[in-house]
Amino acid sequence: MKEIESDKYKKIDDIVQIVKLVSVVFTGMVLIQCFFDKSNIYIEKDRVCHFYKHIQYSIVGISFLIVILLLIFVICSFATSNNIYTKKPTVMRRIETLVFVTMFTLVILASGGYGSEYKILFLFIITTTTIQSGMKYGIVVSIISSIIILSMDLLCAPKGIMNIYFEKDIVLSSIFILTSWPLGFYVKIETNHISDLKILANKDGLTGIYNHRYFHNVLNMEIDKAIQQKTKVSMIFIDIDYFKQYNDLHGHQKGDDALKKVGD
Questions:
Q1: What is the dihedral of CA 211, 88, 121, 26, to 10 degrees?
Q2: C-alpha–C-alpha distance, residues 86 and 79, integer Å
Q3: Res 45: pLDDT
Q4: Are 166 and 200 in contact (CB under 8 A)?
Q5: Which of 121, 141, 142, 131 minimizes the C-alpha distance to 22?
Q6: What are the tens digits of pLDDT across the range 125-170?
Q7: φ and ψ at residue 203, rounded to 5 degrees
Q8: Band of residue 68 on the pLDDT scale cut at 50, 70, 90
Q9: Is the pTM of this model over 0.70?
Q10: Which residue, among 17, 123, 121, has the nearest Cα to 70 in the 3D structure?
């Protein structure tokens, strides 16, 4: 059962890493477009325009550097995806999420800020975070992403056109949350279902105590632990005296009741 579960989580982790790798590729395509988009070249020699262009290219340069580093990080994490799966986000997973959010924010700023068409990039990290860490952390990332894009509208957009982008981004923010909430709910249901299956596979239906399969799994784990720690393993065997005679005399129903009491 443990091997099946580990294999399943490994496959999920591989899929998540592929999604992250695709998001990095898309981000790189956006940055390349920002560099070579001729429509963004200013003809005027105004200092403000040159200053804004300098800031824009600086953001693009920093974003491009982050993409390269992130690409290396994703490839390395994909190559070493045999780690034990855990629902609680690790420190490295939180750093990875922070890097993705920062990268997408810089890319959106470099591609137009409040008027960017690439705000939907946040869906990549929202989806992967929800799958890996559950609904709670997915909603947190979706709220942070929504705050970022709405802040761009409020702080950067001119007053005359701010309402147009703000209304659209409210809808986009709703999509962020509605993506993380149902997906996280499904992940939670699926996790609980697996937990129930593990109980059915490891516990006896009559007495509710752990069965023969679970005993051997735990015994092997304890023996391996004892070998590593150079300690000993002890076991206590308990037998019910004359149980067969009791079962034959009083019937299987009474025998089952006796087993339940001993199990308790």
A1: -70
A2: 18
A3: 44
A4: no
A5: 121
A6: 999 888 888 888 999 999 999 999 988 888 877 766 666 788 888 8
A7: -115, 150
A8: low
A9: no
A10: 17
Q: Could you count the other beta carbons within 10 Å of the beta carbon of residue 260?
A: 13
Q: What is d(CA 250, CA 20) in angstroms, rounded to the nearest whole number?
A: 64
Q: Are 120 and 174 in contact (CB under 8 A)?
A: no
Q: Give one DSSP letter per residue of 18-73, joined into a string.
A: HHHHHHHHHHHHHHHHHHH-GGG---S--HHHHHHHHHHHHHHHHHHHHHHHHHHH
CA dist 185 → 131, 136, 174 (Å): 10, 9, 16
Contact 119, 11 (CB under 8 A): no
The CB density around residue 54, as the number of other CB atoms within 10 Å, is 10
b vs e for 105-132, b when ≥16 Cβ sit within 10 Å of the residue's Cβ? bbbbbbbbbbebebbbbbbbbbbbbbbb
One-letter amino acid at 15 equals I
pLDDT at 71: 63
Distance in angstroms (rounded) separating the CA atoms of residues 97 and 94: 5
Q: Considering only the C-alpha atoms of the chain, give the largest distance between any 2 of them, rounded to a whole number of Å.
A: 105
